[in-house]
């Protein structure tokens, strides 16, 4: 991008790209979503300067909640430095001029794709999820008219049929991500494709907002809301992760990515949350293949 | 004895056309009623009005609910009607595909109604599903197969198991043996007869097959052009038909 | 037990020029418990028709047909079903069953229908089938493939499985050999002894004379100047 483009952006776009009327519309949807935790609120999703599937829903939600004083963090699969995260972070740097950070603790708004940060979030933070398919019943009941009715009448037997099928086929509940939850004892909700390892973290102090751009749905979980992962009495929910410690920082209890390091079957496990890993290594924690400090193992 | 279902003056019109009209009858617990007539006679329209799939333009369909006694399903709230539909009622479709989830295993298909009413123990659900598969003569080792791997007759039996697992009191059947081989039909009829007797089911069976009603139904209702033209004991209607249309119907059956 | 008063019947053939065929008028019949009455008359005189009217299989246009306190001529279908289940048995000439059902279950069914335990019903069925000389190896098979005589005996076994207070027998000894005929006559006498009221059609005169107390000629009920 040239300086000329930079200048045009700053002066010609409204704060955070969207016009104020659109942001008001989205905020109304967000407030309704917060008032009815887990309920999918339809909203008039706008065309965004990025393709569907790249977080258009999350971006619109972030744009609607950002203020000039906010400090924003964007992660994709837990990492701040992946294409999707970098693009969205730059988008808001340019269109809103807000500060950005990679530090979870320092951010006020965190937009995420497929992860919840390992660091516990606080009441001063907002977590914005990018959602591809907001309807948890979709794959069992394709009719939207019918799924809406099922939500309205709390007919959720079908959700357990999915889990039943998992156990029948794999011997356990094999659903590893987008694991369905029941919010505040009422609505069954798709938590977006986060690993089920993250599900227990959803009972948190921060506000959680979910945006699905293509599907034009917004939903929300207010702070300290009960979020229960569905299960069977004899097959209780288990948050699972790779049975390793992080090879860089040695963390035992963080969600890990498996990285193939050569073509001879060599592999390593590293924290998917890059900020968490970096912070630990800065604090002197060392894993199997890691070196102390910020130096990379690879 | 209170009737299980009390139907009063049901009418359904499609614009100016009559779907069915002036239909009324009482169905008592344990009774099986057949509705026969040619296609377009209004028998399926009537069945759908009774089962709450279609809203009739006139009339009442009173069902003897477990908690509140006779209640009109036409004016009842939708949640209540849907609750009835998955507990006390069963609906067996002519095409098993309409009544099954083709992407879900046989066990999941049977277990769905249990889970819908709150069953949350996988082992129990599976055990009940297997028990029901056995009752409809589907071997246990097929429990994890999807219905599209089943023959037509098996699919139909699976549909019946899926419907009866919650111990309904009223079963609606729309041409349950239609599209099946004669040999498979006989097996299904025998199965249905046994289940009806063992479970004390009441049933309403829509069919154009007079042999089916002779074997399954206690009573018969003959429909033509949306009107009921004759009712009575099944063998009486078939052996001593009074109405011209019924006489035609009975005399048109091919002899084997 | 069975009382018929002033009963009339005609058929209307709507598809054959609405021809009205009167078949019976002013029929009277009274059968007491323990009594067996034979219907006689030439073929076509209306013996089977009257029998079917008593069973509710044919509609009755006029008069009363009281069986065990129920007027069959006017009863609701479910009343007739209950009557057939608990009071009125019928042994027809032809066996009509669901294909595939084993003979043993066909015979046991009337007992199961009144709620008797399966073991008891099957035991009774076995006793009847062996009494009627149906080979044991056939019991697990459907009777649809049996010979005419075998089917007839299965039909009789089924008809006598439950002790009906009233019974209708349509040619129960037709197509039976001497030995089985004797068994059937024994069953009929047994039913009379326990107090069943029986109406029967017997072409077999010796059998008729042995079990029947009276004869009623249905030709007397033929419509005049038909």
TrEMBL record, chain A:
GO terms for biological process: organic phosphonate catabolic process. Its EC number is 4.7.1.1. It catalyses: alpha-D-ribose 1-methylphosphonate 5-phosphate + AH2 + S-adenosyl-L-methionine = alpha-D-ribose 1,2-cyclic phosphate 5-phosphate + methane + 5'-deoxyadenosine + L-methionine + A + H(+). It comes from the Bacteria. Coiled coil: none annotated. Keywords: 4Fe-4S, Iron, Iron-sulfur, Lyase, Metal-binding, S-adenosyl-L-methionine. One of its GO terms (molecular function) is alpha-D-ribose 1-methylphosphonate 5-phosphate C-P-lyase activity. Pfam families: PhnJ. Belongs to the PhnJ family. Catalyzes the breakage of the C-P bond in alpha-D-ribose 1-methylphosphonate 5-phosphate (PRPn) forming alpha-D-ribose. This is Alpha-D-ribose 1-methylphosphonate 5-phosphate C-P lyase. It comes from Rhodovulum imhoffii.
UniProtKB/TrEMBL annotation, chain B:
It comes from the Bacteria. Transmembrane segments: none annotated. Keywords: ATP-binding, Nucleotide-binding. Signal peptide: none annotated. The keyword Hydrolase does not apply. GO terms for biological process: organic phosphonate catabolic process. GO terms for molecular function: ATP binding; ATP hydrolysis activity. The keyword ATP-binding applies. Residues 5-250 form the ABC transporter domain. CDD domains: ABC_NikE_OppD_transporters. NCBIfam families: CP_lyasePhnK (TIGR02323). This is Putative phosphonate transport system ATP-binding protein.
From TrEMBL, chain C:
The lineage of its organism: Bacteria, Pseudomonadati, Pseudomonadota, Alphaproteobacteria, Rhodobacterales. GO terms for molecular function: ATP binding; ATP hydrolysis activity. NCBIfam families: CP_lyasePhnL. This is Alpha-D-ribose 1-methylphosphonate 5-triphosphate synthase subunit PhnL. The keyword Phosphoprotein does not apply. Belongs to the ABC transporter superfamily. Keywords: ATP-binding, Nucleotide-binding. Pfam families: ABC_tran. The keyword Nucleotide-binding applies. Residues 2-226 form the ABC transporter domain. SMART domains: AAA.
């Amino acid at each position: 991008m040239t300086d000329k483009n930079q200048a045009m952006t700053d002066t010609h776009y409204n704060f955070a790209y969207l016009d104020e009327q659109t942001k008001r519309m989205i905020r109304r949807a967000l407030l309704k979503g917060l008032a009815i935790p887990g309920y999918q609120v339809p909203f008039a999703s706008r065309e965004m300067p990025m393709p569907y599937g790249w977080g258009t829903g999350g971006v619109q939600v972030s744009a609607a909640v950002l203020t000039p004083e906010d400090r924003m963090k964007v992660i994709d699969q837990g990492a701040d430095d992946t294409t999707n995260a970098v693009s969205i972070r730059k988008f808001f740097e340019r269109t809103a001029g807000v500060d950005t950070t990679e530090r979870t603790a320092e951010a006020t708004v965190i937009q995420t794709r497929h992860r919840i940060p390992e660091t516990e979030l606080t009441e001063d933070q907002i977590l914005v999820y990018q959602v591809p398919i907001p309807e948890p019943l979709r794959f069992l009941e394709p009719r939207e008219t019918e799924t809406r009715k099922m939500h309205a009448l709390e007919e959720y037997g079908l959700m357990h049929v999915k889990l039943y099928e998992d156990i029948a086929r794999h011997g356990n509940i094999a659903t590893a991500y987008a694991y369905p939850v029941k919010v505040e004892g009422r609505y069954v909700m798709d938590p977006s494709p986060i690993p089920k390892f993250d599900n227990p973290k959803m009972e948190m102090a921060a506000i959680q907002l979910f945006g699905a751009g293509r599907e034009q749905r917004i939903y929300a979980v207010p702070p300290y809301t009960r979020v229960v992962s569905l299960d069977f009495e004899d097959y209780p929910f288990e948050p699972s992760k790779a049975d390793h410690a992080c090879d860089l920082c040695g963390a035992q209890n963080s969600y890990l990515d498996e990285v193939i390091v050569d073509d001879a079957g060599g592999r390593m496990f590293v924290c998917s949350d890059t900020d968490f890993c970096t912070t630990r290594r800065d604090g002197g924690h060392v894993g199997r293949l890691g070196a102390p400090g910020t130096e990379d193992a690879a | 004895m209170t009737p299980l279902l009390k139907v009063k003056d049901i009418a359904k019109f499609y614009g100016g056309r009559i779907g069915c009209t002036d239909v009324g009858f009482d169905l008592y617990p344990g009774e099986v009623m057949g509705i026969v007539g040619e296609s377009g006679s209004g028998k399926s329209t009537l069945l759908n009005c009774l089962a709450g799939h279609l809203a009739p333009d006139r009339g009442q369909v009173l069902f003897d609910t477990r908690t509140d006694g006779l209640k009109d399903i036409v004016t009842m709230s939708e949640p209540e009607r849907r609750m009835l539909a998955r507990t006390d009622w069963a609906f067996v479709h002519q095409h098993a595909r309409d009544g099954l989830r083709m992407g879900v295993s046989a066990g999941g298909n049977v277990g769905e109604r249990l889970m819908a009413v709150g069953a949350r123990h996988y082992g129990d659900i599976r055990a009940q599903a297997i028990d029901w598969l056995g009752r409809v003569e589907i071997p246990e080792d097929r429990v994890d197969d999807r219905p599209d791997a089943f023959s037509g007759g098996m699919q139909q039996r699976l549909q019946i198991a899926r419907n009866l697992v919650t111990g309904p009191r009223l079963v609606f059947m729309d041409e349950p043996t239609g599209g099946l081989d004669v040999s498979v039909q006989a097996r299904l009829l025998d199965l249905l007869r046994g289940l009806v007797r063992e479970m004390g089911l009441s049933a309403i069976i829509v069919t154009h097959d007079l042999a089916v009603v002779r074997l399954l139904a206690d009573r018969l209702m003959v429909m033509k052009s949306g009107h009921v033209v004759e009712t009575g004991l099944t063998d009486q209607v078939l052996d001593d038909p009074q109405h011209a249309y019924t006489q035609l119907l009975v005399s048109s059956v091919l002899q084997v | 037990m069975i009382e018929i008063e002033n009963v009339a019947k005609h058929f209307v053939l709507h598809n054959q020029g609405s021809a009205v065929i009167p078949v019976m008028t002013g029929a009277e019949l009274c059968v007491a418990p323990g009594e067996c009455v034979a219907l006689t008359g030439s073929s076509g005189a209306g013996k089977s028709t009257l029998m079917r009217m008593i069973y509710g299989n044919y509609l009755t246009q006029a008069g009363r047909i009281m069986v065990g306190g129920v007027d069959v001529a006017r009863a609701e279908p479910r009343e007739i079903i209950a009557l057939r289940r608990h009071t009125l048995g019928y042994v027809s000439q032809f066996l009509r069953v669901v294909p595939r059902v084993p003979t043993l279950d066909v015979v046991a069914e009337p007992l199961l229908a009144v709620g008797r335990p399966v073991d008891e019903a099957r035991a009774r069925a076995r006793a009847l089938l062996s009494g009627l000389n149906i080979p044991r190896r056939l019991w697990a098979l459907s009777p649809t493939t049996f010979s005419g005589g075998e089917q007839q005996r299965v039909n009789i076994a089924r008809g006598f499985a439950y002790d009906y207070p009233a019974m209708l027998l349509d040619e129960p000894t037709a197509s039976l050999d001497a030995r089985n005929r004797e068994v059937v006559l024994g069953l009929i006498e047994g039913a009379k002894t326990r107090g069943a009221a029986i109406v029967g059609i017997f072409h077999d005169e010796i059998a008729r004379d042995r079990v029947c107390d009276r004869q009623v000629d249905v030709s007397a009920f033929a419509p005049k100047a038909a």
